[in-house]
Each structure stands twice: as C-alpha cells, then as structure tokens.
Amino acid sequence: MRKIEHIGIAVKSLKESNLLFEKLFGQPPYKEEEVVSEGVKTSFFMNGPNKIELLEATNPDSPIAKFLEKKGEGIHHIAFDVNDINEEVIRLKNEGFVILNEIPKKGADNKLVVFLHPKGTNGVLVELCQEIK
Ligand SMILES: CC[C@@H](C(=O)O)C(=O)SCCNC(=O)CCNC(=O)[C@H](O)C(C)(C)COP(=O)(O)OP(=O)(O)OC[C@H]1O[C@@H](n2cnc3c(N)ncnc32)[C@H](O)[C@@H]1OP(=O)(O)O
Ligand SMILES: [Co+2]
C-alpha cells in the first residue's frame, strides 16, 4: 500500500454537502460520478494532495443507506492506493484479513477497488484502489 488514495464520507444529500465542502476547501468538486453497482452517487474534492470522496445512497440497499441508518453521516471508509491490487488481495488474505470482493470491481474515478471487512480492521472499512491504465 503506497498512500491514502481517498477518504470516503457518507452524506445524506450530495447537493447540500457539495456546497458545504466547496465552502470548506474554497473550490468545487472536480468530478461527480454515479456508480450503479454500489448504489452511490459520488463527488470528489482535492485539498492539496488529499482527496475526499462524498457518497450519497441511490437506493435503500446501498451500503451508504445502511451506514447512514446505523451511524449517521461521517467517515465511511479509508481507501489506499496500491500498485497491484490482485497481489495485495493475495497478501492480505494470507495475513488473515476478510476480503469482501476478491475479484476487483470498477469503482469511481477510474479505479479498480476491493474492500476489507471492517470487523477485521478495528471497525474501519478499508478500500484498496488501483488506477486503471
Ligand atoms: C464509489 C465506488 C467506490 C470508490 O470507487 O471509492 C466506493 O467507495 S463504494 C462505497 C460503498 N461500497 C461499500 O461500502 C462496499 C463494501 N461494503 C460492504 O460490503 C458492506 O457495507 C459491509 C461492510 C459488508 C457491511 O454490510 P452489511 O453487513 O450488509 O451491513 P450492516 O449494516 O448489517 O453492517 C454489519 C456491521 O458492519 C458495520 N459496518 C458497516 N459498514 C461499516 C463501515 N463503513 N465502517 C465501519 N463499520 C461498518 C455495521 O455497523 C455493523 O456492525 P454491528 O452493528 O456491530 O454488527
Ligand atoms: Co471509496
């Protein structure tokens, strides 16, 4: 794992939170994208070298809808940039982590993504990201 790729924040309304984070960072999101397979609409902000992903649920079965119901708005996951996602899945599986999808899936912002179960990572949902070249 090379660095934090982004921090994912679950929000009730992307429209309202876009305005809030635009005020916070002094610049608008550089991108908005829907990822149908995850049941989310996302927006991305850069703040210096750091990237923030806002996530709104698009249906009641979305992981974001469930999270908002249980925990409310807030940090939902931390994503780490990896060089070779398949190699990293094998390494982490051998280390005993619970991999939620061993086959990487298409995420937002041109990434392949894999998730680790938060029960095995001190309650933090971890996402691995590999840029699609
Ligand atoms: C936009 C695409 C992509 C990107 O490119 O960046 C994304 O970021 S997509 C983000 C949304 N997608 C995901 O989160 C996929 C991975 N998540 C899952 O598969 C599930 O959410 C889960 C983690 C397996 C939980 O699902 P489930 O068991 O069905 O939900 P429960 O509500 O019953 O939760 C069980 C248990 O887990 C705790 N939990 C759930 N989510 C989180 C979380 N984000 N962080 C920490 N803990 C979490 C939840 O509180 C429950 O705990 P207990 O109540 O103590 O059992
Ligand atoms: Co993410």
TrEMBL record:
<dbReference type="Pfam" id="PF13669">
    <property type="entry name" value="Glyoxalase_4"/>
</dbReference>
<protein>
    <submittedName>
        <fullName>Methylmalonyl-CoA epimerase</fullName>
    </submittedName>
</protein>
<dbReference type="GO" id="GO:0046491">
    <property type="term" value="P:L-methylmalonyl-CoA metabolic process"/>
</dbReference>
<dbReference type="InterPro" id="IPR029068">
    <property type="entry name" value="Glyas_Bleomycin-R_OHBP_Dase"/>
</dbReference>
<dbReference type="GO" id="GO:0046872">
    <property type="term" value="F:metal ion binding"/>
</dbReference>
<comment type="similarity">
    <text>Belongs to the methylmalonyl-CoA epimerase family.</text>
</comment>
<dbReference type="InterPro" id="IPR017515">
    <property type="entry name" value="MeMalonyl-CoA_epimerase"/>
</dbReference>
<feature type="domain" description="VOC">
    <location>
        <begin position="3"/>
        <end position="131"/>
    </location>
</feature>
<dbReference type="InterPro" id="IPR051785">
    <property type="entry name" value="MMCE/EMCE_epimerase"/>
</dbReference>
<dbReference type="GO" id="GO:0004493">
    <property type="term" value="F:methylmalonyl-CoA epimerase activity"/>
</dbReference>
<dbReference type="InterPro" id="IPR037523">
    <property type="entry name" value="VOC_core"/>
</dbReference>
<keyword id="KW-0479">Metal-binding</keyword>
